[in-house]
Structure formats: structure tokens, C-alpha cells
TrEMBL record:
Name by which UniProt lists this protein: Zinc-finger
Keyword Nucleus (UniProt): no
Record Gene3D superfamilies: Anti-sigma factor, zinc-finger domain
The organism's place on the tree of life at top rank: Bacteria
Transmembrane segments: 82-107, 119-138, 159-182, 188-206, 213-230, 242-262
Keyword annotations of the record: Membrane, Transcription, Transcription regulation, Transmembrane, Transmembrane helix
Length: 270
């Protein structure tokens, strides 16, 4: 994409438009998304495709239908924006996550703890957002999953939007819980973010839902079970583990960036 001189709107380069008109299958998913989105609103660029007889015929046939398409009601337009960030299936899961957080705080205030005063909030905080992320991409929970995941507008941007929506709900809830129980920020925030990024990083190889199941199971076996069995605070929940969690977070983000194109394939979003 480049910008024409004197025009602030970015237009596709000529050779990219030609490849799009020919139907080249090796166009990167992000470029394909950008071209299609731009052509929807830019008549001059559609005119640049006019010499191609196939493109001209398609746009000529679609133009009357587009003109007759009714405007989306205001409520529907707002719902469409929300669904671009949050899967309809994620709503009940997000409510359940907040309920689990509240229950953990209530048990902590009642004096119920694991090991030597290990707060239940600390034990569940890292995996709570992972549950929401998994629900956002579950085939079983979202009837429109394959339609959404297979579109050119899917891929890493949609993954980030839905993950950010989950964190926007879960992190404030955990922050409020930490204030109530007097927990430090580093004790839950870094593990929370590291687990979420780790889910996306592993999801680039095995699928997001499968990655969430693997990491939750690993947390239960490596951290929760020994904490209950030996009644002691694991090192992973101490402030001293903050640099390790930061390193895990940085590594996961690096893997996500390197493997970003994997999220454009349907099998990575299962």
C-alpha cells in the first residue's frame, strides 16, 4: 500500500491490484484483507480494475445490489462492532470468570487458603483469562466459528482484539480482587499476561483452544497440586519470580510475531 501525492488515503499499488484481479492465491492474507476493505469504499481504485474484464463484470453486477442494500440499524451496527471484538460465545464465560474471581475473594476473606496462606486468587489468576480466550475460539461454543476464522479479516488482528476484550474484563476484576485481599500487582498480573500470551504462542502451532487446555492442565499439575499436597507457597507465586514471568511474556510475544501468519489458517483457530 502507498499514498498518492496530495491524497491522505492509502491506495493499493498497481501490481497488487493486478494480482488481486487475476485471483493470485499467494497474496498474503493481510494484504488481501487491506485490498478488499479499500475497494469496498474507494470507487477510483475499483475503476483502476476496470480494464480487467472479469473484475469489471463483477463490480458492474454488484453495484445495483450494493445500492439497494438497506442501511444497518443503529443497534445492529453497534452489535456488529461488539462482535468484532468479543465472540457471542464468550459472554457467559466472562461472567463465569468474574464469578470465580468473586468466589475466590470470598473464600480468602473467610480464611480459606491453600498451603501456608496461599490465596486462591493467586492460584486461579493466571488461568482465568485463558478460559475466556479459549471460549472465544471454541468450535463447540461458537456456531459461526468457521465462518469467522476463515475470512481474510481474521488472523492475528482478530485474535488480538478478542484477547484484548477478555483481558479488559478479567484484569479489572483481578485488580479489584487483589486490592481486597492485599496482594501485590506482580504476584498475579505478570503470570496472567504470560499465560495469555503463552496460549496464543502455543496456539500458533496446535490451535488456541488446545493450547489453553494444555496450559491449564500444566498449571494444575505443576503448581496447584504441589501447593495443596505440600502446603507451601510455590516459587512461581513469589515476587522473586517476576523476572521469569516477564521473560516468558517476552518470549511468547516474540513467537506470536514470528508465527503471526499461522493465525490466518483455519486449523490454528481451533
Amino acid at each position: 500500500m502507498n499514498a498518492r501525492q496530495g491524497d491522505s488515503t492509502a491506495h493499493p499499488r498497481e501490481h497488487l491490484l493486478r494480482r488481486y484481479a487475476r485471483g493470485d492465491v499467494d497474496i498474503a492474507a493481510d494484504e488481501l484483507w487491506a485490498v478488499e476493505s479499500h475497494l469496498e469504499a474507494c470507487a477510483p481504485c475499483r475503476a483502476r480494475l476496470a480494464p480487467d474484464p472479469v473484475a469489471e463484470a463483477v463490480w458492474t453486477e454488484l453495484a445495483p445490489q450494493l445500492a439497494l442494500t438497506p442501511q444497518m440499524p443503529r443497534a445492529g451496527r453497534w452489535r456488529g462492532r461488539v462482535n468484532g471484538w468479543v465472540s457471542p460465545a464468550a459472554g457467559p464465560w466472562l461472567a463465569m470468570i468474574l464469578l470465580v474471581t468473586a468466589a475466590a475473594v470470598a473464600l480468602d476473606r473467610l480464611g480459606v487458603a491453600v498451603g501456608d496462606r496461599v490465596s486462591l486468587v493467586h492460584l486461579v489468576a493466571p488461568v482465568l483469562p485463558v478460559l475466556g480466550v479459549a471460549a472465544s475460539w471454541s468450535r463447540a461454543l461458537d456456531p459461526a466459528h468457521e465462518l469467522t476464522a476463515a475470512t481474510p479479516r481474521a488472523g492475528l488482528p482478530l485474535v488480538f482484539r478478542r484477547t484484548a476484550a477478555v483481558l479488559a474484563v478479567v484484569v479489572p476484576g483481578l485488580a479489584a480482587a487483589s486490592l481486597v485481599i492485599g496482594a501485590g500487582l506482580t504476584q498475579w498480573l505478570l503470570p496472567c499476561l504470560a499465560f495469555t500470551a503463552g496460549t496464543l504462542a502455543l496456539g500458533a502451532f496446535v490451535g488456541i483452544t488446545r493450547a489453553a487446555v494444555v496450559l491449564i492442565a500444566a498449571w494444575a499439575v505443576v503448581i496447584v497440586a504441589p501447593t495443596i499436597a505440600f502446603s507451601r507457597t510455590p516459587t512461581a507465586l513469589n515476587d522473586a519470580a517476576a523476572p521469569l514471568w516477564a521473560a516468558v511474556l517476552a518470549l511468547a510475544v516474540t513467537v506470536i510475531v514470528v508465527r503471526r501468519m499461522a493465525f490466518t489458517r483455519l486449523e490454528a483457530n481451533r
